[in-house]
């Protein structure tokens, strides 16, 4: 996967931004029917979903498992510790976890216990108590099963909702932006991606999410990593011609 494409005129870059979002998708929360700006109950749902996305499974399995759990009445991580292990295994098996289910149950129950002890069972309190990005990142970083990738994903989609949700541009989004020449001669940054999203009539979180997906798609198909020319000829975008 090449890291730098040719520079495109501004009008072409806005069209390319729309194409990235349209073909690859944007926010995972929106795909799941979660509106993180609609109150703390929705943030609780996103916290649960982000926890699943942070495990070593595909996005499709994470999405399916999230829907299984919410259909069973689990909409916040703080409730997970009350679910019997055998019942939990059944839920994760339905979602497609298979051999990964027992470690995931242990992490979810450990996380549920910590949320119960520190935040009265309400993960949404984390954003109220930690209002700067460094403090919020540190609070999330000590949670069982939460690492840098999960934190980045979770906070990226909470920009504009929590004061402390101000993560820098995801490195995978920066890489993809260079690969297709999205920001022209300007180095990819959160500010540059935000401006381009605004020009394209898109939510910046959707554009960043789409760029992350673009990088992930290349990693899922190893031959593209080695040979994709990038730019307008990007092998991933070519699958969905305009």
In short:
With 242 residues, this protein is mostly helical. The protein has helices at 10-24, 28-31, 40-53, 59-71, 85-95, 101-119, 125-129, 133-141, 148-156, 171-180, 190-199, 204-220, 222-227, 235-238. It is built from 14 helices and no strands.
Explain what you see.
The chain has 242 residues and is mainly alpha-helical. It folds into 2 domains: 10-27 and 168-238, no CATH class; 31-156, Orthogonal Bundle (Endonuclease III, domain 1), CATH 1.10.340. The chain has helices at 10-24, 28-31, 40-53, 59-71, 85-95, 101-119, 125-129, 133-141, 148-156, 171-180, 190-199, 204-220, 222-227, 235-238. The mean pLDDT is 87.
Helix/strand layout:
Layout: H1 10-24, H2 28-31, H3 40-53, H4 59-71, H5 85-95, H6 101-119, H7 125-129, H8 133-141, H9 148-156, H10 171-180, H11 190-199, H12 204-220, H13 222-227, H14 235-238
Helix pairs in contact: 1-12, 3-4, 3-9, 4-5, 10-12, 11-12
Oligomer: single chain
Total count of helical runs of at least 4 residues: 14
E-strand count:
0
Largest sheet: none
Shape annotation: globular
Structural class: mainly alpha
CATH topology of the largest domain: Endonuclease III, domain 1
What's the architecture of the largest domain in CATH terms? Orthogonal Bundle
- What is the N-to-C succession of helices and strands? HHHHHHHHHHHHHH
What is the alpha-carbon Rg in Å?
A: 19 Å
Q: What is the typical, i.e. mean, pLDDT?
A: 87
Could you give me the name of the CATH homologous superfamily of the largest domain? Answer: Hypothetical protein, domain 2
DSSP strand content: under 5%
Residues in helix, % = 55-70%
Q: In the CATH hierarchy, what is the class of the largest domain?
A: Mainly Alpha
Indicate how many domains the architecture comprises: 2
Span between termini: 22 Å
Q: Provide the low-confidence segments as ranges.
A: none
């Amino acid at each position: 996967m090449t890291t730098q494409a040719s520079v495109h005129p501004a009008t072409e870059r806005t069209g390319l931004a729309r194409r990235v979002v349209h073909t690859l998708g944007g926010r995972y929360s929106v795909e799941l029917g979660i509106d993180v700006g609609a109150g703390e109950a929705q943030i609780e749902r996103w916290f649960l979903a982000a926890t699943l996305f942070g495990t070593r499974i595909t996005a499709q399995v994470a999405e399916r498992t999230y829907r299984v759990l919410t259909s069973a009445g689990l909409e916040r991580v703080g409730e997970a510790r009350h679910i019997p292990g055998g019942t939990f295994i059944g839920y994760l098996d339905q979602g497609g976890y298979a051999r990964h289910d027992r470690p995931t149950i242990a992490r979810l129950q450990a996380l549920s216990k910590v949320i119960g002890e520190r935040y009265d069972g309400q993960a949404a309190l984390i954003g109220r108590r930690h209002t700067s990005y460094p403090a919020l990142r540190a609070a999330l970083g000590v949670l069982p099963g939460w690492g840098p990738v999960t934190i980045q994903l979770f906070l990226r989609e909470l920009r504009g909702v929590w004061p402390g949700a101000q993560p820098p541009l995801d490195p995978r989004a920066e890489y993809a932006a260079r690969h297709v020449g999205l920001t022209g001669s300007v180095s990819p940054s959160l500010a540059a991606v935000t401006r381009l999203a605004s020009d394209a009539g898109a939510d910046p979180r959707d554009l960043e999410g789409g760029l992350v997906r673009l990088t992930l798609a290349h990693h899922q198909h190893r031959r593209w990593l080695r040979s994709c020319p990038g730019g307008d000829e990007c092998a991933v975008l070519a699958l969905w011609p305009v």
